[in-house]
Amino acid sequence: MAKAPHSLFARIYDLFMVPQDRFGLAHQRARLCGPAKGRVLEIAIGTGLNIPHYENADTVVGIDNNVAMLRRAIRRTWETKIPVELVVADAQTLPFPKGSFDSIVVGLSLCTIPDPETTLSELHRVASAQGELRFLEHVRSAKPSTARRQDRYAPVWERVSGGCRANQDTARLIEESSWSINDMWSSDGGGLIQGTAVATQA
């Protein structure tokens, strides 16, 4: 999923996230993962920063195509009583049958995956009939001045951040896929959204 799936990116990722978690992102992770129930799929689980925040899941399956990141995630599976399985896989071609998961968690990853539309379609395929998508994503700000700044630095940021597109309109992508957003929060600057969506039926 990330464009730089190597050990260096895995080593620096946690260090990069420390200040963000301290200034509120850890709280958002808890809101994202805590309510997830049943059999849960988390895509692009990375180094497993979300794992300690699961409270109500029966099991969690976390996928990533960066093996170095998953190696670092293993130690975080020891920090929770909930069974966690880590799988090397790509979110654009999920190795799971239809209707496998009750909750799907997407945390700061749709902005990095090369083809988010295909991924959202795959997530819909593996979701149960009442499946829920829980998302926390960097997005293009609704404030014009902020959005213009994002557009300017987006090409450079994408190269140094493992492929993150800071100016992606992820809410629109979700709504235009086979999901319907039923609840969404946006940060004051409009650059971060969190919410839930339900799988629409074909």
3D architecture notes:
- By secondary structure, the protein is an alpha/beta fold.
- It has a single domain (7-199), classed as Rossmann fold.
- It contains five helices and seven strands.
- It has helices at residues 7-33, 67-77, 116-126, 144-160, 170-176; strands at residues 38-43, 57-64, 84-88, 101-107, 127-138, 179-186, 192-199.
- Helix 1 crosses helix 2.
- It starts with 6 loop residues before the first helix and ends with a strand.
- Residues 1-5 have low confidence and may be disordered.
Keywords:
7 strands, single chain, 5 helices, 202 residues, disordered N terminus, alpha/beta, Rossmann fold, 7-stranded mixed beta sheet
Total DSSP helices: 5
Q: Rg, please?
A: 16 Å
* SS-based class: alpha/beta
Portion in beta strands? 25-35%
Identify low-pLDDT runs.
Answer: 1-5
What is the CATH T-level topology? Rossmann fold
**Any idea what the CATH architecture is?**
3-Layer(aba) Sandwich
Distance between the termini: 27 Å
CATH 4th-level superfamily: Vaccinia Virus protein VP39
Strand order of the largest sheet: 3-2-1-4-5-7-6
What string gives the helices and strands in order?
HEEHEEHEHHEE
Question: How many β-strands, per DSSP?
Answer: 7
Question: How do the helices and strands line up, and which of them pair or pack?
Answer:
Elements: H1 7-33, E1 38-43, E2 57-64, H2 67-77, E3 84-88, E4 101-107, H3 116-126, E5 127-138, H4 144-160, H5 170-176, E6 179-186, E7 192-199
Parallel strand pairs: 1-2, 1-4, 2-3, 4-5
Antiparallel strand pairs: 5-7, 6-7
